Amino acid sequence: MGRTTGSPELTNIHHDLRKRLDAFAFDEAGARHPYSTRLCRENDWSGDYALRVIEEYRKFIYLCCTAGREMTPSVDVDEAWHLHLLYTHSYWDELCGKVLRRPLHHNPSGGGAANTKRFREAYLATLEAYERTFGERPPADIWPDVETRFAPPRGEADHWRIAKALVKRAAGWLNCLLAAMLLNIAMRSEEHTSELQSPMYLVCRL
User: Fold this and answer.
1) 30: left (phi over 0), alpha (psi -120 to 50) or beta
2) What pLDDT, on a 0 to 100 scale, did the predictor assign at position 163?
3) Residue 68 in 3-state DSSP?
4) Confidence class of residue 137 from pLDDT cuts 50, 70 and 90?
5) Fewer CB in 10 Å around end: N or C, the chain?
């Protein structure tokens, strides 16, 4: 769930924000694994569908910054948000720092009936804000109704889809952690070259 403060009215500031968001490129130039390509691969989506989800994610970001209350994404838009968070430079430096000019945190549910009610209400508010802001209903294949969005898993296929998404998400965070560890070792090697020549030292550091 994303939350920022702001007024529902479209002000000049909001118009400027919309222009910056529209110009923002989610795929970084020269990236070995572009964001959109990875979004396709990890969710088994077609290229066209992934690009549509990215555009809906762009609109969701705008709503988070202008609706004046908590917003909740659809499942597929949330997948786009989760993956974008792994591209830390793109998300925090470029999107939040230069485009939004404020942080936009992802706050997951703590579970329980109270949180479920809160998320349902926020999702309904998001659908209403979408229609009010963009002058059209959100596409139903990306933004299902509230009951569909929060329906419990039905059958083995849904359980497998959720399990697969969780595994991919955990793998993504593990990759980030491993990259940070390797970077830390590389930085230390510049200061302690003689110590790092020992294989035993590497084992201990890892």
Assistant:
1) left
2) 58
3) coil
4) very high
5) C
> Which 3 state secondary structure label does DSSP give 71?
strand
Does the pLDDT value for residue 190 go beyond 90? no
Count of alpha carbons within 13 angstroms of residue 67, beta-carbon side:
25
pLDDT of 100 over the 70 cut:
yes
Q: Are 67 and 129 in contact (CB under 8 A)?
A: yes
Q: Check residues 181 and 15 and name the one with the higher pLDDT.
A: 15
6 phi-psi bin (left φ>0, alpha ψ -120 to 50, beta other): left
DSSP 21: H
- DSSP bridge partners of 2: 71
Which positions ≥6 away from 159 have C-beta within 8 Å?
A: 153
Distances (CA, A) of 195 to 42, 113, 180, 186, 198: 40, 54, 20, 13, 6
